[in-house]
Structure formats: structure tokens, C-alpha cells
Write a structure and sequence with these properties.
This protein is α+β, with helices and mostly antiparallel strands. Helices cover 30% and strands 37% of the residues. The protein has five helices and five strands, in the order βααααββαββ. Strands 3-2-1-4-5 form a five-stranded antiparallel beta sheet. The radius of gyration is 12 Å and the shape is globular.
């Protein structure tokens, strides 16, 4: 099992941010944006210190959406537990920090 933590940002928005700004911009990312249709469809990643991004598997999306619906308006930090299944890490559990 692997546990990762960071600010949740949809991949559509991450593609628009300069990489050197990930850590600065992630806490400002809004829940409203992350729940927009095209943002949900793009999938999610967790941004941690040092502009590090951990892209999450597509099976994480329903977990992330459920967590975002109960979270604060911006700067949502998550802890994600991932398990190896058939050689890939898949999201097993998410928790809002």
C-alpha cells in the first residue's frame, strides 16, 4: 500500500499552470472548479511540496468527487491510500485533511 497527500487539482487546470507554480497555485484551486464537468472528466492529481504531482488513477475520480462535495471552497488537501492491483496503483480510500 502507498499513501500520498497533497492538494487536489484537476488535470485540466494543472495543464494550464506552469510547473514551477504548482505548489503555489494548488492551495488556491477552488472546489467549484474541480467539480466542473470537463475538470471531473480530466481526472485529478495531488500536488505536494516541491511542485510534485501524483496523478491519480481513473478509479479515484468518484472518491475525489465525493470528498470535494463535502470539503471547503478551496485548497482541499487529501490523503489517498493506493493499493497495487495487477501491477498498477489504484485508489482504495480518500480522506479530507
Amino acid at each position: 500500500m502507498e499513501i500520498v497527500e497533497g492538494y487536489v487539482v484537476d488535470l485540466a487546470c494543472l495543464r494550464r499552470y506552469p510547473q514551477e507554480e504548482y505548489t503555489a497555485r494548488a492551495p488556491e484551486h477552488t472546489t467549484e472548479c474541480a467539480l466542473m464537468g470537463h475538470c471531473v472528466e480530466s481526472g485529478y492529481g495531488l500536488v505536494s511540496d516541491g511542485n510534485r504531482v501524483v496523478p491519480l488513477d481513473t478509479e479515484a475520480t468518484p472518491h475525489i468527487v465525493a470528498a470535494l462535495r463535502t470539503a471547503r471552497p478551496q485548497g482541499v488537501r487529501l490523503r489517498v491510500e493506493r493499493e497495487e492491483v495487477e501491477g498498477e496503483l489504484r485508489t482504495a480510500r480518500t480522506e479530507v485533511l
